[in-house]
Specification:
Elements lengths: L2 H9 L6 H13 L4 H14 L3 H12 L15 E5 L7 H10 L5 E5 L9 H5 L11 H11 L1 E5 L6 H11 L7 H14 L4 E8 L8 H17 L3 E8 L7 E2 L1 H12 L5 H17 L6 H9 L2 H12 L4 H4 L7 E6 L4 E5 L2 H11 L15 E4 L6 E2 L4 E7 L5 H9 L2 E3 L8 E5 L1
Parallel strand pairs: 1-4, 2-3, 4-5
Antiparallel strand pairs: 5-13, 6-9, 7-11, 8-10, 8-12, 9-11
Subunit structure: Homodimer.
EC number: 2.4.2.2
InterPro entries: Glycosyl_Trfase_fam3, Glycosyl_Trfase_fam3_N_dom, Glycosyl_Trfase_fam3_N_dom_sf, Nuc_phospho_transferase, PYNP-like_C_sf, PYNP_C, Pyrmidine_PPas_bac/euk, Pyrmidine_PPase_CS
Length: 425
């Protein structure tokens, strides 16, 4: 078998066999298939796509390329959650402990952010001492003890994806459904959970810009999960504006704590309770929304989060600390009306330039910087009211502030948006 023949076959729109895909993945992992040929293959997939059978074979061969975690020592149905990425997405920080507070074990491996999308691991590392690296044994033991762990992905888990994702990132082949689906689901399947909730973000700040592509990606991933015995449900969620109020690592930790104390924005709390209801149902636990909300107000979910932070070396005193920045710049409304748009991508890129995100994987983060919105889409504003606060360690010039202000859209009619657009099962 020759790689050039497989590239040509896919380039011409033909379907690869199971044997060919197995040979391709094994060869890429052992180094006999070089990066330049895999890059050519990824571009061929970008233009020609893959059949359902090809995606399934690709996913399971990627799973087989590294370790697979056995969570059978943990009693009960283990649930996991994955987001396809967005701006201000601190959902896992709240959702995981909320679900765990109902005695449903949550064993989650998370990723880092790149570009305008924030990573859960980066947010957790804003807490002094928090250790994202854990052995498989320690990971399982922690879930057994407190019902919750959020750690980094092992280097030995899905080796093929680790190699292929880095290659896709530098060859403009990230945003193609077969490669996104196989990347996400190979990691989720290898991580060992019994049930998986997929948060597929849609809109300006997401990889999927329209509902049709998001629906196709969601259905592809759900089918992959269910085909190997993992109960899988996807929700299509709105990423036209940032999630919640905060963008930035420490700022998002503080917003998560606020919601875990029964406070924070009502729309975000309700959205997370809806996701929790779906995750709990996947684990065979039926709860109504008021029952779920109660665990945000009675301290049970917060206690789970604090227990996880402490178990992974985090400093509980530092946890509640306010950001340490040189300046907080207030952005005020220049007319009366309603906030009609806060483009997630633009504000994600702005926060990245403040140091809250990475342009490339080797960039250092400034965990303290970011943006807090005092007003969101649909909120009424008056001239002079604070719309947002910029937490910065840089001297922002008039151009930067002007660029920020022009993306705060104000209209005379109220706009309403939904967080959950569809459920795919």
């Amino acid at each position: 078998m020759r790689m050039v023949d497989l590239i040509q076959k896919k380039r011409d729109g033909q379907e690869l066999t199971a044997e060919e895909i197995k040979w391709l993945i094994e060869g890429y992992v052992d180094g006999s298939v070089p990066d330049y040929q895999m890059a050519a293959f990824a571009m061929a997939v970008y233009f020609q796509g893959m059949t359902t059978e090809e995606i399934s074979e690709l996913t399971m061969n990627m799973v087989a390329s590294g370790d697979q975690i056995d969570l059978s020592a943990i009693p009960g149905i283990k649930v996991d959650k994955h987001s396809t990425g967005g701006v201000g997405d601190k959902v896992t920080l709240i959702l995981a402990p909320l679900v765990a507070s109902f005695d449903v074990p949550v064993a989650k491996m998370s990723g880092r952010g790149l570009g305008h999308t924030g990573g859960t691991l980066d947010k957790l590392e804003a807490i002094k001492g928090y250790q994202i690296e854990q052995t498989q044994e320690a990971f399982i033991e922690q879930v057994q003890d407190i019902g919750l762990a959020v750690i980094g992905q092992s280097d030995n888990l899905v080796k093929a994806d680790k190699l292929l994702y880095a290659l896709r990132d530098v060859t403009a082949t990230v945003d193609i459904i077969p490669l996104i689906a196989s990347s996400v689901m190979s990691k989720k399947i290898a991580a060992g959970a019994d049930a998986i909730l997929l948060d597929v973000t849609v809109g300006d700040g997401a990889f999927m810009k329209n509902i049709e592509d998001a629906r196709e990606l969601a259905q592809t991933m759900v089918n992959l999960g269910n085909a190997v015995g993992r109960k899988t449900v996807a929700v299509l969620t709105n990423m036209s504006q940032p999630v919640g109020r905060a963008i930035g690592n420490r700022l998002e930790i503080l917003e998560a704590l606020e919601i875990l104390q029964g406070q924070g924005r009502e729309d975000v709390a309700h959205f997370i309770c809806e996701l929790a209801q779906i995750m709990l149902k996947l684990a065979g636990v039926e709860k109504n929304l008021p029952e779920i909300r109660e665990n945000l107000t009675n301290g049970k979910a917060l206690a789970k989060f604090e227990a996880m932070v402490e178990a992974q070396g985090g400093d509980l005193t530092d946890l509640y600390r306010e950001p340490d920045v040189a300046e907080i710049v207030e952005i005020v409304a220049e007319e009366d009306g309603y906030i009609s748009a806060l483009p997630a991508l633009e504000f994600g890129l702005f926060a990245m330039k403040l140091g809250a995100g990475r342009a490339v994987k080797t960039d250092d983060l400034d965990y303290e910087t970011g943006i807090v919105f005092e007003k969101k889409v649909g909120d009424a504003v008056k001239v002079g009211e604070v719309v947002a606060k910029i937490y910065t360690n840089q001297n922002l010039g008039q151009k930067e502030l002007s660029d920020f202000k022009k993306n705060v859209k104000i209209e005379q009619e109220e706009v309403k948006i939904r967080e959950i657009l569809e459920i795919v099962s």
